[in-house]
Amino acid sequence: MAASAAVRSSMGLTFRLSRVMPDCNTCPLNRLKSCVSGAANVQRRGSFDSFRTINRNLQTSKGLYHSEEGSSNAEDPEDVVNVVYIDRSGKRIPVKAKVGDNVLYLAHKHGIDLEGACEASLACSTCQVYVSADHFDKLPEPEEREDDMLDMAPMLQENSRLGCQITLTRDLDGIELTLPKVTRNFYVDGHVPKPH
Amino acid sequence: CCSPKVCIVGSGPAGFYTAQHLIKARQDVEVDIYERLPVPFGLVRFGVAPDHPEVKNVINTFTLTARNSRCSFYGNVNVGKDVSIEELQQAYHAVVLSYGAEGNRRMGVPGEDLAGVYSAKDFVGWYNGLPSCQELSPDLNCETAVILGQGNVALDVARILLAPTDILKKTDITQPALEALVQSQVRRVLIVGRRGPMQVACTIKEFREMVNLPDTRPEMMADDFEGVKEALKDLPRPRKRLTELMMKTALEIPSEKEQERQSKASRVWAFRFLRSPIEILANPDNSRTVGIRLAVNRLEGSGDGARAVPTGEVEDVTCGLLISSIGYKSLPIDPSVPFDSHKAIVPNNMGRVQHTAGLYCSGWLKTGPTGVIATTMNNSFDTARSVVEDMESGTVDVSAARPGSQSISGLLEERGVKPVTFSNWEKIDSLEMSRGEASGKPREKLLTVEEMLQVARK
């Protein structure tokens, strides 16, 4: 009983993970532009069928899944990951998240203004966050494509990562994610200081 | 008492991100976005390369903003011609100029106006369906194309010239451009810069795409990288990674598999450094270009501040297509708006236009034409913050009501100008997408303003 519940729970996790952060860019369907549900086709389908919307639906239905199961409650402490977002004004926003949550969509769910212009497709750097020192090394190494996009981010720091590429695990409990302060360094003559 | 009304001129990323931030920051503000074309989104629609569809996802964010009850879109309105900045300033509490950079920097060399010579801005506009560039009809019947400039736009152009058309035909590239590229004889593209490898303006993502471009091989020159290895350790991360990749491409012996791939490739691309244009060479009857005369430079100094100094040596390169990708440039919109013609921007302090209360700017018009969408986003949020600060401090007096679009709509009607609403645009959008479906493309763009207006008004 417990074993099968655990299996179903973990499959649920996998299901959630795969929905939360699909990597379309390695999928042959996407390469051949034959995928009908990927981010690349958002505009094709016309409107709000974006990852952002799909993801939100998924988050709210998660409780249902668990209560159907009847085997674990939605507040399973094993599943909780405590996260603190520090917004651009320096305000600390603690969030009770779950294992498998995606940092970008979690921020959206809690009204934190972390932009995700390209909708998690590694084609922009607007979801850049600074990761707390204690947790930075616990993250898996960024793939080359994430590093490429980070290179373009304004105010890049040693502890910069793209929020859309961070999936929460128990290890990351207590993680603090700081949104870069938007620079006010534009000079009167329009000169933009080069990042260094 | 009354809602503050803000007018934004330009519906590209700068305009929309400024609107987004304003609407979020104040629950009472109403934002009207004016756009010269019947269709919104500026360079996201007309600049981003067709094979970079993920970059265009930002359109979903902009659409959310446009559909907000406190935001209205007015397409087909030419600010500066159909309505003046002064009239907008009278109708709104604040006016934000976000109309970008529609001009381009000239090379300033003889032969610049010969057939076969194009600005990258026009070439990109052509393959992306910008109505004013549809008559470009570039002649692709030559083996070698030279691109001057080594920024991301230059690499986009190179990639579009060399990408297998099987890939391009699944994108939103225009049908006429696709057909021209299918017929193209171009097999070799040289991407030429004044300075050296450590001064290139492109970013690693775009360079990596060239390295991985199917059916092509690189022809970088090892000599160009003399002394570069030693300089690597002092470079900031983004510059270091890019330089390492360029060096690897130029110096490393490829794996057997890669060597085989390269030997089968039918197309070649190369970076050429330390070369500046002196003259564009013409055919005997002086009607089109057959090549370019380049000055050979040496570098003085290092890093971003390195200067290209002519050595006196000169080199001629044969080519039938020359694309100049040396920068976009903003143009003045209205004599009443201060304009710095040297820097080609509107002089400002944190988005507040100098000497002009209630007037702001965001995007490339504010900082010059460089940076990616993230840069423009930050820049626009900054300007929006300045607007909100000014409203809160009373610098912008929102206690007195302003008519906003009510009076402007009246003026436009008198002048026979019929704006395109966001719902009208959505008809164009639907039609383009359904047309695209038939050929396996995300959309088939409408290519003339007339057609756009016709569909908008159905």
TrEMBL record, chain A:
Keywords: 2Fe-2S, Electron transport, Iron, Iron-sulfur, Metal-binding, Mitochondrion, Transport. InterPro entries: 2Fe-2S_ferredoxin-like_sf (IPR036010), 2Fe-2S_ferredoxin-type (IPR001041), Adrenodoxin-like (IPR001055), Beta-grasp_dom_sf (IPR012675). This is Ferredoxin-2, mitochondrial. It is found in: Mitochondrion matrix. Transmembrane segments: none annotated. One of its GO terms (biological process) is P450-containing electron transport chain. Belongs to the adrenodoxin/putidaredoxin family.
Automatic annotation (TrEMBL), chain B:
It is an enzyme of class 1 (oxidoreductase). Residues 5-161 form the FAD/NAD(P)-binding domain. GO terms for cellular component: mitochondrion. Its cofactor is FAD. It is found in: Mitochondrion. Pathway: Steroid metabolism; cholesterol metabolism. Keywords: Electron transport, FAD, Flavoprotein, Mitochondrion, NADP, Oxidoreductase, Transit peptide, Transport. The keyword rRNA-binding does not apply. It catalyses: 2 reduced [adrenodoxin] + NADP(+) + H(+) = 2 oxidized [adrenodoxin] + NADPH. Its EC number is 1.18.1.6. One of its GO terms (molecular function) is oxidoreductase activity. NADP(+) binds at Q150, G151, N152, V153, R194, R195, E206, G371. It holds the Pfam family Pyr_redox_2. Belongs to the ferredoxin--NADP reductase type 1 family. This is NADPH:adrenodoxin oxidoreductase, mitochondrial.
